[in-house]
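Subject: Interface between my chains keeps coming out wrong

I've been trying for a while to get a sensible model of this assembly. When I model each chain on its own everything looks fine, but I need the whole thing in one frame so I can look at the contacts. Pasting all components below, labels as-is. Any help appreciated, I'm running out of ideas.
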Amino acid sequence: MKFSMASAPGGRAASSPLMGDAEEPTIFELSVPARRSFSLRDTAVPSMDLDEIQSWVREDAVELPEVSERDLVAHYTRLASRNYSVDLGAYPLGSCTMKYNPKFADQVAAIDGLTNVHPLTPPEAIQGWLRLLDELEHYVCEITGMAQATLQPPAGASGELTGLLIMRAYHASRGRKPTKVVIPDSAHGTNPASVSLAGYEAVTVPSGADGLVDLAKLRELVDENTAGIMLTNPNTLGLFEREIREILDVIHSVGGLAYYDGANLNAIVGVARPGDMGFDIVHSNLHKTFATPHGGGGPGAGPVAVVEHLVDFLPGPLPRSLDGGASYTWVTPERSIGRVHAFYGNAVVLARALAFMQYLGRDGLRTMSELAVLNANWLKTRIADSFEVAYQQPCMHEFVVSAERLKAETGVRALDVAKALLDAGFHSPTVYFPLVVHEALMIEPTETESPQTLEAIAQALEEIVATARTDAAAVFAMPRNTPVRRLDEAMAARKPILTEDQRQ
Amino acid sequence: MPSFAPHTEEEIEQMLTDLGMSSLEELYTSIPSTLMRTEPLALPKDLSEIEVLEQFSRFGADNSAVRSSLISFAGGGAYDHDLSAAARHLGSQSAFVTAYTPYQPEVAQGVLQALFEFQTMVARLFGLPIANASLYDGAASLVEAVNMAVGFTKRQRVIVSTGVHPGYREALATFGAGTHLEIEHLGLAADDSTIFGSSDGDHAGAAAVIVGYPNYFGAIENIEQARALADNEEALLIVVADPIALGLLRSPGTLGADIVVGEGQSLGIPLSFGGPYLGLFAARTEYVRLMPGRLVGETRDLEGRRSFVTTLRTREQDIRREKATSNVCTNQTLMAIQAAIHMAWLGKRGFQLLARRNYDGAHYLASRLSEIGLVPSTAKFFREFTVHTMGSATELQHRMLQHGFLAGVVPPNLDDRLVFAVTEARTRTEIDGFVDSLMKELR
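Reply #2:
Try treating it as a single job with all components included. I did that and got this:
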């Protein structure tokens, strides 16, 4: 097959531009007694006596580092230079939607009137925040096809548990105590963990040969003890569950509820809606689909939206106007499951997501998804000669290939391919997930990578496969050009050193 | 079309041609046509970035309660501290901001080492040997600590002081519905400290005893008594600590806590209307294999260089799935890094001085309030204390807003009390001005 794209220079930043490969001392090793950075205002408050609390007063100061501000800045700048990021280059980490995070949203997050507000301020003095949250709720509900939403869950997994507790409260309100929640075998690990924490038993429905939920097997599994189902659609294989209506009908027919895990929402914004598919509860990962930065592992935001008959169970408080939009206050639904966050969720992350949605608008949001799907399909087809494509039908925003043939022929595994790609200057795909595909490489280019970058990734993968065939040992030795090389992970786990003080 | 996708029209056509397709709609043939939307979303059309920024500036302007215009004496789990420029600038480097969880440690040493240093600081602060790489917030840390104690003891009963932050207790009750938690409460004495009861007599055995340090009302709890109750119940002792207090007070770990959790917002994170904040979590070493969240450990690379990696991954949800005791995946890494930078900026001496300034400010305010008849419920407090108002506290707080003050926090369902907090950001002039205004309102 012939492809039309040329590879362009640049965009391969995981290795060579980073600072040297010498060990960076820890901040504690840089510490010198009596050195300082801090600068505190003179409050003119008199020193008060400690008599009443004397028995609690500590004898020694906490051993925090003592460094100059100059050394502090150098240390954290060097650390930053030893880290790959979306701003450096492509990050095709499947299921994580590592798209570009626009800079204007950083400016939103820095607005004084938003960041410097105490969460327990009386509503009259926080009308801007209440209005902002209300508007975001409207966007989330329109995009997912739901009635109302809580913005409290600070991450996707928290949203899952919140949604399942709403499911639980709904069944309890109807005097029912079903015990099982169905999840497909391709589900993200947070799904079964959340199901257990919600007090349900996770029941696995297998995927058929086409990578989709096996409807016949589902019918066998479901009975009056079924509380509901948790699904991503598209699923973690990047495939759309065509029989979604039939699947959800099976669940609804026994009184169960359908939970939509929004991990893969980036494929279908403006194209199809979970609500129209028949889902009752939907969480959205704003840090994926709506481009709030991932922060090295968080913060995220995982609002949970529900259909009309579940709104009474939403966590409170919710921003609501009781006078037609003139003013806003906090309202907690009567049968609320209760708070899931100390305050109102990751508010500043929520603001960033709304800014992104407003920028794209109704049409740009759809284009975003279409191009994410285009990129995934193009790259999948482009590398089909190098790796076995796990499932042949058109993919959505991500796809899974297998390195099983390569492993059989050369001994080079998915993990080795991932490590070798780092040397080529790109972040690795997700590997060994979903579990239903052997030697899985799960690739999600997102819409923000150019066709030239996709071509460069494809060429890098081809080169790795070629090297594997001629000199597998060279691949096992990769990466070579990163700040550190492969790590002894077994040693880290055998006798864990989790702090400076646990080192021998 | 506004988008951050770089594709030109021509490139889109080329790519479609490569795929043998003629339109973007063809990409979606696997979606049944009945589910495909033909109408655009009922949302506004796109905006330029400057229009979005202007819109958000208006949202900001509609919040009159901004730090620069309102003098805050509110705490309740969110504190008005002066922040270091270093933490803001270094913590917002795009290499930290736009990375994700360090799944490929060879290209994530920056985040990993920063987290290792953060874990060390939290462990030292709390007086325990190990800490994790953060959870969502103080409430989440408490919930996870209780789940861990339940997992360890195989008991469902927990004993919680009503002095623990009400928002955290509510979250515990919310999530406890799923884990069949039996929550028993300990009441407070007139001085707002927990009544632990006598340590002999019947006891059913509990998973955990939970107490604040200082508690929500400001009282510094007697951790040794809490420990005695925990021993009697063969329970783990979980302490919810204010990290700033530990610049002055003895660490809960050294006083006998098994797990110490807390809200890390005070460690250099803006008020942010309640989030993103930072859940802190430290424990004794024997619980390491039950710890929630990510743990960063030290190891060596192929060439023997010291390096860092997420470790003991078999605890985590993606491996244990339905057997996991925590479902945490994304956490608050960026906040953890910012907090570590801020703690390093404060340093050993600065942190101590900061704690003392908080103490002095709060006790100075308390002494001035006592002069006008608002006497704190206890003298054993750190930077936060409770007074009884004669009339409605909400009303008084409302009137004080007109004077330019955020007059503390009203505890849920206790409208005759105000909890005041003072940080190093409050000057003597501001405190005196606050007392004068209160005096006018109470007259």
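Reply #3:
Confirming on my end. The radius of gyration of chain B is 25 Å.
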